[in-house]
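Data card: per-record layout.
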Amino acid sequence: MNPPANPSPKSGLALALGLLLLVPALLAADPAEDLIAAAVHGDTTAAQTALKAGAPTKGVPPARAMNIAAENGNFAMIDLLLAAGVPVDEANSHGGNAIGMASFKGNEKLVAHLLERGADAARIGHDQDGTPLLAIYGAIRSGSLAVTKLLLDHGADPNALDSRPTQRVNFTGDVEFYRMMKAAGGRDRQHPVMDIPGAREALEKFKAQTARDAAANAGLITLLSTKPEPGAPRAAAGKCRLAIIADEANAAAADLLTARLSTVPALALIERTELDRVLTEHKLTRDLGTEAGAHLGGLLGADALLLIRARDAAAGRVVETRLVNVHPGLILASFFQPAPMADPKDWAEQMAERVPALAQRASARDGFALSLLNVRATVETVSAREMEKTANLLLGQRLLREPGFYVLERSAFDQVAQEI
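The structure for this 420-residue chain is written out next.
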């Protein structure tokens, strides 16, 4: 038997070149992962490359890319994915889809765009635990009446899942949302507390008692008069980093106030350029609710923020000026006046006198933190909800003016309401 011939130098070189050409193919990323990464970076060119390389257009990966594009408000990426064949209502691994995310972000234009492309406003999805998901839940959570109305106009059902959308806004006392649900045919659902055995009988029994006792037995909050323990010494006073955020209607008044507060030694105002940068990066607007504003304050590294925005009250439109301690989300003070402002200059002067002292409370360590659940009427009507809104507003204002009390943000309780 002849010994094996030694390979020639040429054949060895060919083998080496073949292996070198094979390595990039072996190291190439999964096209599906490339598609998701393209969505994260908003790179439509990379997304097209991933789709040409075989990225799927059905299932979780493209749905995840759609969700990311919706979260970022990326119309071009969404249109590219839809054109490639990704179903507009495709759900990701958590049961969410693009219109649900756009609704949660309060992006009215994107929600309208998705509806035009065939998105189902009434779709009911489910997360991994079986919890139902509705786009209208996200719209309510975002605080956007416009998105909520858009979804209702396109078939979202206020009576879905045993009237949960209507019950949710009823439970949280959101008068405008409640009125909108009722106008769309929403039905009131019995409050869950009445499902407890004997609850109805107990309520009937206590109807004859005093209003105070009846309210307590109906499940309303009772504030206990307790003496606070001695608090820890306050930290040495330093400059309070303050962010001033106003909606468009009150931007000019906010500029006047900023000019006056810029000379206060105890305050370090966050520059507008920094504020605009963070707003742009996170695709936020200046018309923020308190919870979203507190989140923005955290992104800015602010100790406190001053939210100035117009809002509806039972007596009419008002301008609310709310001072919030970013961590852990304490309302330090709120002020109201009729909208639009009659004299922004006078308002700025008044606020310039009040804000510095109040902002120093952001570093306070002693006092009681209260979380307020809504005062509830036993009769579920629009007028009753309007009365509740005014009563809750006045109660909150009264407690804010009590030394040693801090009113916590409602986000935790909103989450409880969301899960009912």
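Known properties of this structure: The first helix runs from residue 9 to 27. The two ends are 84 Å apart (CA to CA).

See the next section for split statistics.
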